[in-house]
Design goal:
Blueprint (H helix, E strand, L loop, with lengths): L13 H15 L2 H9 L7 E5 L3 H10 L6 E6 L9 E6 L6 H15 L6 E6 L3 H4 L9 H13 L4 H8 L9 H6 L3 E7 L22 H10 L6 H12 L16 E7 L1 H15 L4 E2 L9 H16 L5 E7 L15 H15 L7 E8 L11 E5 L6 H9 L3 H7 L3 E2 L10 E8 L1
Helix pairs in contact: 1-11, 2-3, 12-13, 13-14, 14-15
Length: 432
């Protein structure tokens, strides 16, 4: 528990306090105890599937609650370990690989054996879309990877990405639940998506797809995804044969499905804010927008909000959560992630504002899974007290090469794998 401080808090320690606040958020979002509590008293499962970046911790919680059923666990390489009673598999994220394809085949084979007397327990966390690639008929893994690469570079938010992913799968969009029917299915989920929309968590393997097909068609055309020949062919096939598509609301295949979100970004935000309040009680908390849209644009919005408070003469804090996007040039994608780019763009906006900005500020932007994009960093942490080269920052943002820039200035947020995945956090404090 942090000490409380008077209004003349030494701001030089603020970066340390934000890092501690981020650690408090991670602790609040640890899934093992949450899953253990949820599993107490449920009908004993006959099979368990744990999927996502937090699969290991969720499986631990189920075992601690007395769940003994065998199962399959699929997670990332950095989170992979052996757990008694599970066939523990590792696969690639965010780009699918052949290991994920093999894992998906094993999941489908297990689920297909279930009958009316069985109870399947699903433990779902973020990352499941990439970890469980099950391409639709006629689509190869290479084509699935090409589509995934295009989606990651498109600038689409996670909801719209998953709208399209569900159309190119045999398990997503409720199809796993359809395969399991008439077995009873209970799924506990950790939400890594804004708004906690069930169909977007791991692309909704046991959730009906509520998004009209026409909307998906518009997304494909607007972002020129139909330039991939197999995408155009699949969309035409689904237009002619809707039954091949995702499960729709009201489908009786979902009658025996019970779903519950166990934790979301809100728990992390509350824990981070609580720590900041105790460490720096003079801070006035601002209403924070949900993190979405382009990372650089969100950074500009947050910077404007902080700058506007300078004239109020009060030190301020902001805690935001969600998930932004970065639209990439696939010919030169750079190296970084949405949190690194947001932190750098915020620092540039504050520095460019000169005397209009507060003299002292710190931003921490990080992914709760400990991995921001295809890098080993969780994000970035930057303070006004550090030297800042505006020209170099502009160049890094233009080339989407935030990682190298932040690394060179010792501004990467490094936390290692966390065992959870509850979207991103941005923590900002500022004062004159």
């Amino acid at each position: 528990m942090p000490m409380t401080h008077a209004a003349n808090t030494d701001f030089s320690r603020s970066a340390d306090w934000l890092r501690a606040a981020f650690d408090a958020a991670l602790k609040a979002g640890q899934p093992s105890s949450i899953t253990q509590s949820a599993c107490q008293g449920i009908t004993p499962p006959t099979a368990v599937i744990a999927l996502g970046k937090a699969a290991g911790a969720m499986a631990d919680g189920a075992r601690a609650a007395g769940v003994t059923a065998p199962g399959i666990l699929i997670t990332t390489d950095e989170n992979h370990r052996q757990i008694d009673g599970f066939e523990c598999l590792a696969a690639s994220h965010p780009v699918p690989d052949s290991r994920g394809l093999q894992a998906a085949s094993k999941v489908a084979a297990l689920v297909d054996t279930l009958g009316a007397d069985d109870h399947l327990l699903l433990l779902i966390s973020g990352g499941g879309s990439a970890l469980l690639p099950a391409p639709a008929s006629g689509i190869s893994l290479a084509q699935k990877i090409a589509l995934n690469d295009a989606l990651l570079a498109s600038g689409l938010d996670i909801h719209d990405m998953n709208v399209i992913r569900r159309l190119f799968s045999t398990l997503k969009g409720g199809r796993l639940a359809r395969l399991a029917a008439p077995a009873k299915l209970t799924q506990f989920l950790l939400s890594d998506v804004p708004g906690d929309r069930l169909e977007s968590i791991a692309s909704g393997v046991a959730i009906a797809d509520p998004v009209p097909f026409d909307y998906a068609c518009d997304l494909v055309k607007a972002h020129q995804l139909d330039q991939l020949d197999f995408v155009a062919a699949q969309m035409a096939e689904l237009a002619d044969n809707p039954a091949l598509g995702p499960v729709r609301p009201g489908d009786p295949a979902l009658d025996n499905v019970y779903s519950r979100i166990l934790a979301s970004n809100a728990q992390c935000r509350d824990a981070a804010a609580g720590y900041i309040r105790q460490a720096m009680p003079e801070m006035q908390f601002l209403d924070a927008p949900a993190l979405d849209g382009e990372a650089s644009q969100m950074a500009a919005l947050l910077a404007a909000q902080i700058i506007s408070q300078r004239h109020a003469g009060k030190p301020c804090a902001l805690v935001a959560g969600g998930e932004t996007t970065v639209t990439l040039d696939m010919a030169n994608p750079g190296k970084g992630g949405r949190c690194q780019e947001l932190a750098l763009a915020f620092a540039l906006a504050m520095t460019s504002a000169g005397s209009n900005a507060p003299k002292n500020w710190v931003i921490l932007a990080g992914g709760t899974d400990g991995r921001d994009g295809p890098t080993d960093a969780a994000g970035g942490i930057i303070a006004a007290s550090q030297k800042f080269d505006q020209t170099a920052a502009h160049a890094a943002l233009f080339s989407h090469n935030s990682y190298d820039h932040l690394k060179a200035h010792d501004q990467l947020l490094m936390v290692g794998t966390t065992g959870t995945n509850l979207a991103d956090l941005v923590l900002i404090i500022a004062r004159d």
